Amino acid sequence: MSMKQAQTINEVIQILDEIIQKSKVEQSNIGLFATLYREVTVRVKEGIQNGSFQNGERMEKLDVIFANRYIKAYYQYQAKEKPSECWGFAFEQAEDFWPIVLQHLLLGINAHINLDLGIASAEVSTIENIEDLKHDFDKINAILSNLVGGVEKCLIKIWPTLTWILKATGKIDNFFIDFSMETARTGAWKFATEFVAVPENEREACTQLRDRRIKEIARLVSNPGYFVSVVFKFIRLFEKGTITQKIIDMQIAEEKNMECLVA
């Protein structure tokens, strides 16, 4: 399988469409995050067109570099090569029966924000001008930070059993608190400002160290403790339909209610 990389934001969307379609054919959970990420990319594209970002040209460059890290990891995994550890862990979990849809999505969000976003931000900046990116960095995170709540609303519509479980047990909220999107984006920005100052010959070692740390967060998402894990297994047993149908349900939810995943 050839390693694809995008040159424009439109090519990012096209490649994500291909990943989603392939995931439907192969009944792969990998398509769940790809579906969510496509929606984020479309929103960023709209923001660039609408002048929502301070620097649209820089934002498209950031978005493409950002997306290409995910795309590269995907194709590496498909070719049985070794992607970054946190992406490798997320893709391996996609082959497991027990993770619920929300866990698959959070594993992708974890790798993409906590590792990829900081690196991409540093790559479009210098030590002298990275602070100029802060406004647009926060803007793209305003889209990303709404994902957890939006995903929960979307999944409740698709799987009503989740509503009962979320109401019946307050402890489930701890899982979402522990996976704090605010903490993630704050950490991503801190990492970006540190990484931009790292000499080129030391960046690979710095990236690997960060990668290992983010993989540990992925392990917590995958195994969030006995009680929550039991609840998630119960949810998993009530998830109806094939993986393909779940992807289609998410796509339909996006079309009918655009704020379901993003706002």
Could you explain the architecture of this structure?
With 263 residues, this protein is mainly α. It contains 14 helices and no strands. Helix 1 crosses helix 13, helix 2 packs antiparallel against helix 3 and helix 4 packs parallel to helix 11. The radius of gyration is 18 Å and the shape is globular.
Number of strands: 0
- Rg over alpha carbons: 18 Å
Helix content: over 70%
How confident is the prediction overall: mean pLDDT?
Answer: 85
> What oligomeric state do these chains adopt?
single chain
Major sheet: none
What low-confidence regions span 5 or more consecutive residues with pLDDT below 50? 259-263
- Give the overall silhouette: globular
The H/E string reads HHHHHHHHHHHHHH
As a percent range, the share of strand residues is under 5%
Straight-line N-to-C gap: 36 Å
Give the number of helices: 14
Structural class: mainly alpha
Architecture blueprint of SSEs:
Layout: H1 9-26, H2 30-49, H3 56-78, H4 85-93, H5 101-123, H6 134-144, H7 147-158, H8 161-168, H9 172-178, H10 181-195, H11 203-222, H12 226-237, H13 243-256, H14 259-262
List keywords for this structure.
mainly alpha, 0% strand, 263 residues, 14 helices
Short description:
By secondary structure, the chain is mainly alpha-helical. It is built from 14 helices and no strands. The protein starts with 8 loop residues before the first helix and ends with a helix.
